[in-house]
Specification:
The complex is a heterodimer of chains A (530) and B (275). Chain A has 530 residues and is of the alpha+beta class. Helices cover 40% and strands 18% of the residues of chain A. The chains are: A alpha+beta (530), B alpha/beta (275). The structure holds iron/sulfur cluster (SF4). Iron/sulfur cluster binds next to helix 3 of chain B.
């Protein structure tokens, strides 16, 4: 279906409520709601969701109080089958800072609306669970960090308060608090387990410990600087996040980067996928005390990391992405080395796969552990590898291709069981796919420049940038003001959508399996907290 | 079982020779930027300052006098300065930057009437070759052959964690030095802290520090841990680790490669034995 048809349908259904509807950057359908018709927001969102089986992607706000005396809400949907995005923009008056909750009908928007409440002070009326998400208990109420009148350099005094943790009562029910400082070399967050004996009845999480004000920090900075911030949203997704940011800038400026740069970006994205997946496979083996599996996986991963260092000068592929392309070229002489490493990765992983899957003690721990049912995954909006392991066949590389992914042949591996085993196998399959994607890239890597210069950002513009990171879809949204300066930078990491999945998947499992289940999702705290 | 054994025998030993042998990074490695102050004008220095995303390069002018400085504590090794001023700034292969004193991370130069009048190059700590043997002896003497490290993420992007975790893989195999990561600060001799310290982790970091028995060393890891890095100070970030707890060793990098971490850890072990 064409974007024109979609716009016509929306026009005929909601003509009285819409201010504007248009397409930009080829695949973004922009729908602007009239300010007095805010109560129609949930209806339109639901219509889009049902009519075109559109997935909820993200929702965020921006503050336009100074110019227009209003905030703006943005609800983003993906129409996978039509390869289109649809953004619904809804103005919220500064005099009445509330809006009808979409999450009341579409639970996937749950966290997004709570973050909007906490950081913009806009109340989601009718939200099923409106408690604080972003704000820690010592953060003063009615202080909203993302509002323009809140200075980035302010330092609100701490107030007294307790985490809004629901208590679970009953005979023999115990609570186990864990974190924020964890026992391993991992990121910080607080978990509260309610257990009856070994089984977990309920898990609650308090995150946002690593909140660094990244989105706010970007406001007013030059895009060149923000690029380096984007590389540091989540260390393991350095290239994914910087690609999404560059893509947003390039779309906003109407640029198509040179073909060689596109190929090099795919190469980097796939190398990032491989090193993270190998690490996770190793860590999953480690968590079931299968140390030999850990050692072999990490040894091969280390080969990929040192290849990264030789190719780009940085193991995490930092300082490589550029606005308008990439900063570092690939020398012809190193191509055979990449090719032979891809063969090695495949062979080693095949062997490791056999070793793991033929070991009863490993299989026993992975199978039926931490099940995330497909219906749950779909309802709460789970994305990426976690979604694919629960049967959600979605991948931005195929559904929203750019960089030339549409010219490549690859499979999107899925599993139906939604357990730790499924998430492990999706990773194994994806590494195999990535190695052959890299081989396809190397076969016909186009000549030519690796970068074109980018003009100044256009004034009062909006653009999305995205890619499929190793964990799932990464989406950035960029807005400029009337001078062309960045006024809003929204970062959407897949972890933000998948943390709720973990809370569901652990239910009924025993506490000692928690680290394993957690690892099988391997969610980013920093990407979530920003 | 036999299969595993065969696999392991086939694989053989994979652990790096570092620090016994140097581990030179590849040619295009983004190591410490080096400014050739003889070859650079104040104007060009200002251009480098302008492109530097973290303020690691700073130029102050007061009348006819100017002072330029470059701090590896806040540098994220992005290479922008070298791109902007290729005739005088290069990205070197140097990565063993760990030091006891933050001042040793700063290079500076003075100019009068645009003429270079002085350059201050920081003193470097012992190289890894010197450290390796010496420290191993010392640590065996004082610590009973082991050092227990507690890692604390005080708000990092997780880049440093990836490289710290890599120290445990078979290539870097930290345990060969008698260093272990432990689950509780109460068991630790050393806190390995990544930053920037966020508002929401400040108290947790303080409590972890207090829970660690004396004598203890604190190591700040990465640009953010050393100085706040690209995140600096804001409503959400307090800046570097030393803003909250005393720091004994700084390991620059964004993130430091595992070899750089190893160099810093060995240096820190020396410090611990002096305590
Ligand atoms: S490498 Fe980057 S962060 Fe370091 S001094 Fe140069 S421009 Fe600044």
């Amino acid at each position: 279906m064409s974007s024109r048809l979609i716009m016509e349908t929306l026009q005929s259904e909601f003509a009285d409520h819409l201010a504007k509807i248009y397409v930009q950057h080829e695949d973004e359908i922009q729908v602007e709601l009239l300010s007095e018709r805010l109560d129609w927001l949930p209806k339109i969102c639901l219509f889009v969701h049902h009519q075109w089986k559109a997935f909820f992607v993200s929702a965020w706000a921006s503050d336009g109080c100074k110019q227009e005396h209003q905030f703006k809400l943005h609800y983003l949907f993906s129409l996978d089958n039509e390869k289109l995005f649809l953004v619904i923009h809804a103005p919220v008056s500064a005099d009445q800072p509330d809006f009808p909750s979409v999450a009341a009908h579409l639970i996937a928007a749950n966290w997004a609306e709570r973050e909007i409440q906490d950081t913009f002070g806009l109340t989601a009326v009718g939200h099923p669970n409106p408690k604080a998400l972003w704000s820690h208990p010592d953060w003063p109420s009615s202080t909203f960090a993302m509002r323009k009148d809140f200075s980035i350099h302010s330092n609100p005094t701490r107030v007294d308060g307790d985490f809004p943790i629901a208590s679970v009562e009953g005979e023999g029910v115990l609570e186990i608090p864990v974190g924020p400082i964890h026992a391993g070399i991992i990121e910080p967050g607080h978990f509260r387990f309610s257990v009856a004996g070994e089984p977990i009845i309920r898990l609650q999480a308090q995150l946002f410990y690593t909140h660094k004000g990244t989105e706010k920090l970007a406001e007013g900075l030059s895009p060149e600087r923000v690029l380096h911030l984007s590389e540091r949203v989540s260390g393991d997704s350095t290239f994914g996040h910087s690609t999404a940011f560059c893509h947003a800038v390039e779309r906003m400026c109407g640029l198509t980067i040179p073909e060689r740069a596109q190929s090099l970006r795919i190469l980097c994205l796939e190398l990032e996928r491989i090193h993270n997946h190998l690490s996770d496979i190793g860590m999953i083996a480690n968590d079931v005390a299968f140390l030999i599996g850990y050692a072999h996986a990490m040894r091969v991963r280390e080969d990929v990391m040192s290849l990264n260092e030789r190719l780009w000068g940085s193991r995490l592929i930092r300082g490589v992405n550029a606005l308008g392309g990439v900063r570092r070229d690939l020398s012809l002489s190193i191509i055979p080395e990449i090719k032979s490493l891809m063969i090695k990765v495949r062979e080693e992983l095949r062997e490791l796969d056999q070793i793991l899957m033929n070991s009863a003690s490993v299989v026993d721990r992975l199978e039926t552990t931490g099940i995330l049912h497909q219906s749950t995954a779909k309802d709460i909006g789970i994305v990426g590898i976690a979604g694919r392991a629960s049967g959600l066949d979605r991948d931005f590389r195929r559904d929203h291709p750019h960089l030339g992914y549409s010219r490549l042949t690859f499979n999107v591996p899925t599993r139906q069981t939604g357990d730790v085993m499924a998430r492990t196998q999706v990773r194994i399959d994806e590494v195999m796919e990535s190695t052959q994607i890299i081989e396809q890239i190397l076969q016909k890597i186009p000549d030519g420049p690796i970068k074109i210069s980018t003009p100044e950002l256009p004034k009062s513009a909006f653009a999305l940038g995205y890619c499929e990171g190793w964990r799932g879809p990464i989406l950035h949204a960029l807005e400029t003001d009337s001078h062309g300066a960045i006024t809003r930078y929204k970062i959407d990491d897949p972890s933000f959508h998948n943390w709720p999945a973990l809370l569901f998947a652990v239910q009924g499992n025993i506490v000692p399996d928690f680290p394993l289940i957690n690892k099988s999702f391997n969610l980013s705290y920093s990407g979530n907290d920003r | 079982m036999l299969k595993f054994l065969r696999k392991s025998l086939q694989t053989g030993l994979v652990t790096t020779q570092y620090p016994r042998l140097p581990d030179l990074p590849p040619e295009n490695f983004l190591g410490a930027p080096v400014i050739n102050f003889e070859k650079i004008s104040i104007e060009r220095l200002k251009e480098a300052e302008k492109v530097c995303p973290t303020g690691a390069i700073a130029v102050e002018t007061d009348g006819t006098r100017s002072k330029a400085s470059l701090s590896y504590a806040s540098c994220i090794f992005c290479g922008r300065c070298a791109e902007a001023v290729p005739e005088a700034i290069t990205m070197s292969q140097e990565f063993e930057l760990a030091t006891f004193f933050k001042a040793r991370l700063i290079t500076s130069a003075e100019y009068v009437d645009g003429k270079l009048t002085g350059v201050h190059l920081p003193k470097r700590e012992a190289s890894i070759e010197e450290l390796g043997e010496r420290v191993r002896d010392e640590i065996f003497k004082t610590l009973g052959r082991s050092l227990h490290i507690r890692h604390v993420d005080a708000g990092s992007c997780n880049g440093c964690e990836l490289e710290i975790a890599a120290l445990q893989n078979p290539i870097f195999d930290l345990e060969r030095f008698g260093m272990h990561f432990v689950a509780s600060p109460r068991h630790a001799d050393m806190l390995l802290v990544t930053g920037p310290v966020t508002r929401n982790l400040e108290i947790a970091l303080q409590k972890t520090y207090e829970a660690t028995p004396d004598p203890k060393v604190v190591v700040a890891v990465g640009a953010c841990g050393c100085s706040g890095g690209i995140f600096g100070e804001s409503y959400a970030s307090r800046g570097g680790v030393d803003k909250i707890v005393p720091v004994d060793i700084y390991i620059p990098g964004c993130p430091p490669r595992p070899q750089a971490l190893l160099h810093g850890l060995l240096l820190a072990m020396g410090r611990l034995s002096i305590h």
